[in-house]
Prior knowledge:
This protein is mainly alpha-helical.
Amino acid sequence: MSNPGASTAHHPLFIAFVVAALSMLAPFTIDTYLPSFPAITADLAASHAQMQQTMGLYLAAFALTTLIYGPLSDSFGRRPVIIGALALYVIGSIGAALTTTIGGLLFWRVVQGLSAGAGVVVGRAMVRDAFSGHHAQRVLSHAMLIFAIAPAIAPMIGGVLQDWSGWRAVFWFLAVLGVAVLAVIAWRAPETLPADGRHSIHPVKVAGAYGMALRHRRFMGLVLAFALNFGGFFIYIAAAPTLLYDHLHLGVKDFWMQFVPMVGGLMLGSFAMSRLAGRMTPQRGIRIGYALMLAASVFNVAQALLLPPAPVNVLAPLVLYAFAVSFSMPNLTVLALDCFPRNRGMAAAVQSFMQVGFNALVAALLVPLIAHHVWSLALGMLALACVGLLVWGWQERYGAAAAP
Length: 404
């Protein structure tokens, strides 16, 4: 049921749609330009390392600003923070479309990162403002189900735009997408944080709240486990150009062969969790998710070592891993946000910072080291899943009893 004082003016599915629309900007901003890597490299005389930095710097800026948007939304409300960030995102996308140098592209990618983080942070906080318990799990699962469309269609749209009008059309598309989301938010999105639930933005109080979060063992264990789980999935997003072009010898219009099956797994996992919310504890849902993640990772390593690279055997384990990640995600998110019921914006900010910051490290440091072989990519996924399981087990054994 809805929390006391929370907005109930809109149907849960509309809230899920709003949260999904906000969250979609992040995968669109990453995945749509992946098919254009060779074209951008040639047009702007960029190196492969600089092209990888266009993703790494975007993710780093995204991660850092999540720590700002959470307290801002706790102080001023959800709507004004989202609207301001979306306006900045549109400016960054237009700048990227018009740039003529790789340095300019790197700068405007940072601007996109500075703005796109607001949607993920504030969207999660909106759900917990308005819903509690298994209702929040169900709304987050519905949001994930809608959100999952983005990484499926983004590279296909990017491939079509690249083939039709070149890489600049990709960033013009992102600018239009930003305007569309901004229009929806300004038109109908509710303000879910009542005035009496807001907090001071004073730097000392904000620093104190973050310090409290960093010392909370259960909370940090939950958000780190989530970041590691998704990192195993993100390896294959960041490495998609190398995987498809170099290992599978596919073309610019073939990105759908990787992203559609992976997103299908995300959507099935979200659908399954939405149907089971309230019928099992979050802890049981997470345990099931880890069992599936480990099975998918071991299967992935086996096929990489025993079979020649081919779309079917390389991508099949990724579908199961994606299912497991999206099945466990709402449970980890709800448990983490419930650690700070009066500072959900801050809690969502730390969770997003950990996830996106870790993705930035994966894209900038891990993927360049392991992308040269299919088997090393598979081992990277297995390693992150195992560490995630260890962190989850640690917080279950020690974090819950010792929190904070």
